[in-house]
Every structure is written in structure tokens, then in C-alpha cells.
Automatic annotation (TrEMBL):
Keyword Ribosomal protein: no
GO molecular function (one): oxidoreductase activity
InterPro entries (alphabetical): NAD(P)-bd_dom_sf, Sc_DH/Rdtase_CS, SDR_fam, TR
Organism for this UniProt entry: Cinnamomum micranthum f. kanehirae
UniProt xrefs under Pfam families: adh_short_C2
Lineage summary: Eukaryota, Viridiplantae, Streptophyta, Embryophyta, Tracheophyta
ATP-binding listed as a keyword: no
Name of the protein in question: Tropinone reductase-like protein
UniProtKB keywords: NADP, Oxidoreductase
Length: 243
């Protein structure tokens, strides 16, 4: 299992893209960058906590310098989750979820706009969740933050079309990644059995199945696709009652 960010980076590099990524953990980022360099990948990176406004501003200054004021692709895969009943979510927890999942993406997109516009052909892809489309037990704050991202996608697609910037969003269901929260959830057998029973394809997704859609949306082959929230869920979201 690998994380979304790693899968996306490796997919894009495979199509010839020059990629700049970021992560909070400097040691892990350095190790990953060295692995990519050893493989001949054209990838650079910054240590950045995107939940912090000043850090986002510094990151985009670095990106602007690195890519000479132009950016063809912006991908946001940031996300955090606090799974609690609505009445138990504190003001601080609400702010953490909304700030990390939505505010950080909103602000990064604002900062990236002049770079995307300058490229002449920009593409934005957000990582949302199937929780933005249907009710699941992921916590109402998490679901609301992802729903905000999905609607943001639609508004940007219309607002920035004049700048030749496309905006799309992918909404995965349970996907096997190396994230601790995902690993913990996958170990909850009764919960996972119920989730699988509601998934027509009868299995959970792989990170590469999500990253391949993200990458496709960045390619010229997707040049007429914008404003879409695409479920990557094995049919989960369309399964009303089909025993």
C-alpha cells in the first residue's frame, strides 16, 4: 500500500511532468526525494504544513520561483478526519478539520491562480471523498469539509474557465493506503464487512486507482472535462438497494 501523494507524483512523472511536492515530515520527504532521484524522476519538494497560512504562502513562492511564474497543474490531496458524533465535536476540532481540509485548499488555489493563468492551460484536481456525496459514518465535520471542496470545484470551473483553467475533483470510497487511520479502519472487521456488502465491486480501492484518475484529469485527453466530482467507489454511491 502507498499513499495518494506518492502514487500521484509517480503517475505524473511517468507522463513526463516535472513535479514539486510537499510534506510535513522533513525526514520522510528527504528519503522519498532521494528514492525518486535514484530512479531518475524529476521531482523536488518542500517541507510544509499546509494547514498553516504562512507556510502555504512560502510554498507557493517557492513554486513560482521554481517554475518561472507558471504552473500547469495544481493537485491538493490534503485531508484529516475526526470521527465523532456531531454533538461531541469541539470548536477546536471543527476548526482543525475545516481549516485543514477546506481552507488550506481554498487558499492554495487562490495563490496558484496567477501561475495557472500564466501557463495558458491550467488544471486543478482536488481530492474530496465519497462522504461529500452520501452520508457515511466519517463524522459530519469531515463530510461537510469535503462537500465544500466539491462545490468549490464547480464554482471554480465556471469562474476560471475564461482563464483556460479546468477544475475537477475525485471522491474516493475506502481506499487501501499506508495512512494510519486507513490501516486502523481496515482492521475493524465488522465495519469493513458492512462496507464491502454495500460496494457492488466487492472490494476496496487501491491508491493507484485513484491516482490514475487524478492524472488523467490533468492530461490533454481530459481537456473538455471541468467542474466534475468523480466518484471512485466501486459503485458504492449508486447502490440504493441491489442485493
Amino acid at each position: 500500500m502507498i499513499c495518494f501523494r506518492r502514487a500521484v507524483v509517480e503517475d505524473l512523472v511517468g507522463f513526463g511532468a516535472t513535479v514539486h511536492t510537499c510534506a510535513r515530515n522533513g525526514t520522510e520527504l528527504s528519503q522519498r526525494l532521494q528514492e525518486w532521484r535514484d530512479l531518475g524522476y524529476n521531482v523536488t519538494g518542500s517541507v510544509c504544513d499546509v494547514s498553516v497560512r504562512a507556510a502555504r504562502e512560502k510554498l507557493m513562492e517557492e513554486v513560482a520561483s521554481l517554475f518561472h511564474g507558471k504552473l500547469n497543474i495544481l493537485i491538493s490531496t490534503v485531508g484529516t478526519e475526526i470521527t465523532k458524533p456531531t454533538v461531541d465535536i469541539t470548536a477546536e476540532e471543527y476548526s482543525i478539520v475545516m481549516g485543514t481540509n477546506f481552507e488550506s485548499t481554498f487558499h492554495l488555489t487562490q495563490l496558484a491562480h496567477p501561475l495557472l493563468k500564466a501557463s495558458g492551460e491550467g488544471s486543478i484536481v482536488f481530492l474530496s471523498s465519497i462522504a461529500s456525496l452520501v452520508a457515511i459514518s466519517a463524522g459530519s465535520a469531515y463530510s461537510a469539509s469535503k462537500a465544500a471542496m466539491s462545490q468549490f470545484t464547480k464554482n471554480l470551473a465556471c469562474e476560471w474557465a475564461k482563464d483556460n483553467i479546468r477544475t475537477n475533483c475525485v471522491a474516493p470510497w475506502v481506499t487501501k493506503t499506508e495512512m494510519p487511520a486507513v490501516k486502523k479502519a481496515l482492521e475493524m472487521e465488522s465495519l469493513m464487512e458492512g462496507a464491502l456488502a454495500r460496494t457492488p465491486l466487492g472490494r476496496f480501492g487501491e491508491a493507484e486507482e485513484v491516482s490514475s484518475m487524478i492524472t488523467f484529469l490533468c492530461l490533454p485527453a481530459a481537456s473538455y472535462i471541468t467542474g466534475q466530482v468523480i466518484g471512485i467507489d466501486g459503485g458504492f454511491s449508486v447502490n440504493g438497494f441491489y442485493p
